[in-house]
User: Fold this.
Amino acid sequence: MTEQSPHDSSRRGVLRTTAAAAGAGLGIGVLGVPSAAAATPAATPAAAPGTASPAATAAAPKRLGATMAGVPFTGRSTVRVGIVGYGNRGAGMIGHFLSLPGVRVNAVCDPVRDKAERAAAAVVAAGQPAPAVYANGEDDYENLCARTDLDLVYVATPWETHFAIARAAMLHGKHVGVECPVAMRLDELWALVDLSEQTRRHCMQLENCCYGRNEMRVLRMAHAGKFGRLLHGAGAYNHDLRGLLFSPTYYEGPWRRRWHTQSKGDLYPNHGFGPVATYMDVNRGDRAVSISSFGTPALGLAEYREEHMPPGDPSWKETYIGSDRTISLVQTAQGRVIRLEHDVSTPHPYSRINSLGGTRGVFEDFPARIYLEPDHKDDRWADFSAYADEFDHWLWKDHANPPGAHGGMDYLMVFRLMQCMRLGLPPDFDVYDAATWTAPLPLSHASIKAGGAPQEIPDFTRGEWRKARSGVDSVKPA
Assistant:
């Protein structure tokens, strides 16, 4: 099968600028990782089989603007938001923006007009003025981004469109928050870093799992030294999505299932990687330096199709190559190890694993359990809730029962972002985190194709990772 980005024909218009903007002349492969046979600059010879790819070993491109690490937003009394995408995720998130004081949704966009109009109706129902509606084709997000009455563009669209929309938002002077993953290609990740630095606009991976109650408690405990010196962590997205992937109505077309015909790697690393990266202060004193990945055969989706899909269904034309389960090991500059897993194709109770271990003990989630010295003895798991009073994050103390799905972490993520924008604070995570947390997506594909050979994770911070700075473990504003 020829490897190319699995762009649904109905979504191609969104991507017209991506390759030219981010990967011209690089010999880019399916996920933005140059192949060994591709033409490479003279200073970067093609990699031999079984070694790291040229994209990984090449030096970081020259910085075109100043760092965005620690750069605060400009404070404002009202945050003006444009929402692009009103599918399952966008429809579930718009209410959080509308529920917060000092937030105004001024524009909505979806190429399916009915969805765009339903988004507008939700804004009006919340008591805000009717927003502008953009539903004239796949490229109408450009017109939304060009408006002068927006501060933030929120993106909840199919994955392959994220880069183009984030790029347009920053080029039009807007901050941008993108659902996972922020982009699908390594060259696109570098392009977003460069654009953020050049335009002085933040590009954030809106990783809701970083705001889970357990995740935030573990984060504060880690920073308080309860785990001793940190050694290892693990995160995952193990979630049986077979029924949804083949549903004719859940997704707008088969875009998500089609990625399993194109990539062998971890298609959704952010939910697992993001929280563990915050525990270990990745990009804030440590750095993810390499990834080695392995994948199982791709059997689950084909078996599900055989049992549930009628003859003649379009899915029968698809050949799945995506590993049913991928397992990756990420090494950090301080020698720590992070295990990542991805499995949406086989029967499995939902789990993000969410584990952290150090010289004084370990935490494991799903279900939550902990063992720490000197608090615990006899090698028996203990009750994690015993640490709630002392170590729950102030966000969870101020919002003990946050509304919405995913246990309230969606609401807290939006609340905190809007708080940072209104008060003129730096965001809890930035474009460097977005790029780092997403890099396992293309690099795991490259590593699996290379028999598990390590792939170097670029230093998107260009050395800034050595400086300690705040992140999700934030101080409550006065």
